[in-house]
Amino acid sequence: MMGMYDVPMWHSIRDGAMQLQHCAPCGATLYPPTPVCPHCLSGRLEWKRVSGGATVLSWAVFHKTYLEAYPAPYNVVAVRLDEGPVMVSNLEPPLPQEGWIGKRVKLIYATMPDGFVLPRFVIDDGPRA
Ligand SMILES: [Zn+2]
């Protein structure tokens, strides 16, 4: 799960302030972490904190338990971060009854039963910053 390029990201998540790589030459925000920018192939990448704002692109509910710390049923959402990258995560309750796609969500940090801190999302009903 944790590759060498991911280490700063997981440390920032554990600290409650997720950072992703930002490409200095082209301005792209990169996820997952990478040695070079896939857009312009630059290696001049800086870690920057993300805003935490995102929009739901798609979602699914899984009815099978794969890991004891993550009992079914649970949802999986694909969100587009305001910085651009698409991230696969989970939406925390309260869950919308319908119409998940296009919902504004915000990043939170959930400590799982196994002690691992994961970036997750909650519906953001507040005014858009
Ligand atoms: Zn770039």
From TrEMBL:
<feature type="domain" description="ChsH2 rubredoxin-like zinc ribbon">
    <location>
        <begin position="20"/>
        <end position="46"/>
    </location>
</feature>
<protein>
    <submittedName>
        <fullName>OB-fold domain-containing protein</fullName>
    </submittedName>
</protein>
<dbReference type="Pfam" id="PF01796">
    <property type="entry name" value="OB_ChsH2_C"/>
</dbReference>
<dbReference type="InterPro" id="IPR002878">
    <property type="entry name" value="ChsH2_C"/>
</dbReference>
<dbReference type="Pfam" id="PF12172">
    <property type="entry name" value="zf-ChsH2"/>
</dbReference>
<dbReference type="InterPro" id="IPR022002">
    <property type="entry name" value="ChsH2_Znr"/>
</dbReference>
<dbReference type="InterPro" id="IPR012340">
    <property type="entry name" value="NA-bd_OB-fold"/>
</dbReference>
<feature type="domain" description="ChsH2 C-terminal OB-fold">
    <location>
        <begin position="47"/>
        <end position="107"/>
    </location>
</feature>
<dbReference type="InterPro" id="IPR052513">
    <property type="entry name" value="Thioester_dehydratase-like"/>
</dbReference>
